[in-house]
Design a protein that fits this description.
- The complex is a heterodimer.
- Chain A is mostly helical.
- Chain A contains 13 helices and no strands.
- Chain A has helices at residues 2-25, 33-38, 44-54, 60-72, 86-121, 126-139, 143-157, 173-199, 202-209, 214-252, 257-266, 270-298, 300-305.
- In chain A, helix 5 (86-121) crosses helix 8 (173-199), helix 6 (126-139) packs across helix 8 (173-199) and helix 9 (202-209) crosses helix 10 (214-252).
- Chain A is flat.
- By secondary structure, chain B is mainly α.
- In chain B, helix 6 (138-151) runs antiparallel to helix 8 (167-203).
- The chains are: A mainly alpha, B mainly alpha.
- The interface between A and B is large, with 49 and 44 residues.
Chain lengths: 306, 262
Amino acid sequence: MSFAIKRIWGVLPVVFGVLLLTFLLVHLVPGDPVEVMLGDSATSGDRVQLRAELGLDQPLPVQFGHYLKHVAHGDFGRSIHQHTKISTLIAERVPATFKLALLALMFALIIGLPLGIAAALHHLHWPDRFATLSALTLSAMPHFWLGPLLMLVFSLWLGWLPISGMESGASIVLPALTLACGLAAILTRMTRASLLETLNEDFVRTARAKGLPERLVILRHALKPALLPVVTVVGLQLGSLLAGAVITETVFGWEGIGRLLVESIEKRDYPVTQACVLVISLSYVVINLLTDLAYGRLDPRTESGR
Amino acid sequence: MKASWPALIVLFWLLVALIVPCLGLSPDTIHLQHILSHPDWHAWLGYDDLGRDVLARLLSGARVSVTVAATVTMVTFSVGTTIGLLAGYFGGWLDKLLMHITDVFLAFPGILLAIAFAAVLGPGVGNLMLALCMTSWVGYTRLTRAQVLAIRGRQHVLAAQVLGASIPRILGRHILPLLLAPLLVEMTFSIASLIIAEASLSFLGLGIQPPAASWGSMLRDGTRYLLVAPHYVLAVGVSLMSLVLAVNMLGDRLRDRLDIKR
């Protein structure tokens, strides 16, 4: 239990830093952010009003204090262009991204685990070579190249899946697959390395020596400890899927929080940009924390060891 | 020595980046009658949505990619390593503070922080490089610091201290050379991710601005015309992938050769 408290305590400065950095984002805008956001057509009255609304007319520490207070209440202010509450905008988009990330995670597990296991069991033979090479290739394919490639193959040439948008249920498959491939590559490599290591352990040799069939040696003895580090990777990468969603959603016109972020950048709606960056990175921090805590539960050795 | 094809691919793109201005290509010339035409004898990779030669734009995009990655690497390598050396060597509150700062930077997943910086700084190559510099020094810092912690107590460092060597001399002559191997491997992988990051930002319209060519913006335009001109996306995507894959494979080989665990 004390480990959990220590870990949560350790995250607090990070959360504070993330809040500070996202707060400072608007102040990185070269020149006057209000001018940049409103464009040339705005009157000086508009500018004064927006400046007051964003609190930009106050000293920096005061602004930061207000920012913290508002964020703590889940209030990110209003969008400059749509005049709606940013929290509403984000709440509308989060389910789409969540669905996408979850399906991507499933795809990644379905592709990555068997590939990694096959590679380890046939070390240095063709399944291993195939898995290693695919993992290497996939990790060199950013989403904005893999996405169009999958569109080309599955929508245009084979005609199996819709090319983009969110109209039909099948629309989610291609963006999820695009998002999944990078993670699948990492999972393949991790599973392979971890299982190879476990297969050299003494307890696996003992299991073999007592005459257990190879299938049971792997299923009962090797796989479980081998998959432990993979759990950590899954947790850590789940957060990265959120960052990957920014590009993937843009490629496929998927109306999630990543697309909202990119739209806000295009419209120079900085309060929305700021809020999206904050929400995505805080989710990442929380997911990582939960992964760490879960890992402590799964592997009793770490609990006492730390 | 056996020829290694990843090295050859990297060399090829480096060479392209170097000599592209001397080739007399016209990547910005518009041929309206050829809009999205398929490859022909004059344009081996066809034409884009404004009737510009895809091959010429691809090659000048390579120059952008390589230049951005090289510049950002030089800056982040020197800054990141220096910070790591100081944090690791001096320890104490300086180390604590610097590590808290790197923790915050690492709390943003993937390319998100670079996107945020590039978004507020505004488009353009300079701002693009600034955004990438601001986000990619952390890896060098963490690696250097961890290594310095392991090395600073060694006999030869103590000997140098006792002999009254200055701190820059200890750091530069007695500690840094021992870190070069892992740093080199880190640098290789960092270059691969910088190439992807530059293309990502340009894809989002945050990096290189038109009419200048960049692989990221070419992929964005190409995706729009996927239906009529698949050759456009394929040409750019394969190029990008070949370079990133080759750099990553070089990194893997370096790591094995120098026997470094990550």
